[in-house]
Design brief:
Strand content: 5-15%
Number of domains: 2
Number of helices: 7
CATH architecture of the largest domain: Alpha-Beta Complex
Number of strands: 4
Order of helices and strands: HHEEEEHHHHH
Strand order of the largest sheet: 1-2-3-4
Largest sheet: 4 strands, antiparallel
Radius of gyration: 26 Å
CATH topology of the largest domain: Aspartate Aminotransferase, domain 1
Shape: elongated
C-alpha cells in the first residue's frame, strides 16, 4: 500500500476553489492507477513517487498543472509534448473538463509506473552552452599585455567565462576598467578569477 502525506491534504485545502476538484481527482486516480505510490512535497508542490519520480501536480492562482516525470517516453500521451504555457503535459487547467477521461488518465499512470518499475531512465537533457564571446574592449586590453594574453589563452573555457562574466557584469565603465586592470594583473600571475577559493 502507498502512503498519503497530510501535507498534500493541506496543499489541496489551501488551493483556490476551482483547483480543489482538479487536484482531488488527479490524486484519487494516481492512487487507483498505482496503489503502491507514495506522496511527497517537493519544490513546494505534491509529487507522487513509485520507484522514483512518477508525476506531480500543482495549483497556482489561476490554473493547475499535472505532468509525468518521464512523459517524453510515454506512448499513451500520444505525442502530447510538455506544455509551453505550464509545467506538465496538460497545460493550464482551470476546470475538471481540462483533464482527459478517467480511463485515459489511469492508462497513463499505469504506463508511467511500469516505466519506473522497469528501471527505464529519462534521457538527460544537455544544456547547450553559448559560445564564448570576448568583448572587444577586453580583447584590446589582452592584446596590450602579451603575458596576460598567453595566460588567458591557456585557460579552460570555464575559467575564461568566469573572467568575461565578471568584467561584463560591471554596472559602470569605471568599475569595468578597474576589473580589467585586476584581471590583467591576476592573469600575469597565472591566477584564475576565483583563485582565492581554489585548493592548494
Amino acid at each position: 500500500m502507498g502512503k498519503k502525506d497530510p501535507r498534500v491534504d493541506a496543499y489541496i485545502e489551501k488551493s483556490a476553489d476551482f483547483a480543489r476538484p482538479i487536484l482531488k481527482r488527479i490524486r484519487k486516480l494516481v492512487h487507483a492507477g498505482c496503489p503502491e505510490v507514495d506522496e511527497a512535497i517537493k519544490w513546494g508542490c505534491p509529487h507522487f513517487m513509485y520507484k522514483g519520480m512518477l508525476c506531480s501536480m500543482a495549483a497556482f492562482k489561476e490554473h493547475c498543472t499535472f505532468g509525468f516525470w518521464k512523459g517524453s517516453l510515454m506512448k499513451s500521451l500520444k505525442g502530447r509534448a510538455k506544455s509551453e504555457q505550464a509545467m506538465g503535459q496538460y497545460g493550464r487547467m482551470t476546470q475538471l473538463a481540462d483533464l482527459p477521461s478517467d480511463k485515459v488518465l489511469l492508462e497513463q499512470i499505469k504506463e508511467a509506473a511500469k516505466l519506473n518499475a522497469d528501471g527505464v531512465k529519462a534521457p538527460k537533457v544537455k544544456k547547450e552552452k553559448k559560445p564564448l564571446r570576448i568583448p572587444p574592449y577586453f580583447t584590446a586590453a589582452l592584446k596590450g599585455n602579451p603575458k596576460a594574453f598567453t595566460a588567458f589563452s591557456d585557460f579552460s573555457p570555464s575559467h575564461k567565462r568566469e573572467y568575461i562574466e565578471w568584467i561584463s557584469e560591471a554596472k559602470t565603465d569605471a568599475t569595468r576598467q578597474k576589473r580589467i586592470a585586476t584581471t590583467l594583473e591576476w592573469l600575469v600571475e597565472g591566477k584564475s578569477r576565483n583563485w582565492k577559493y581554489e585548493r592548494r
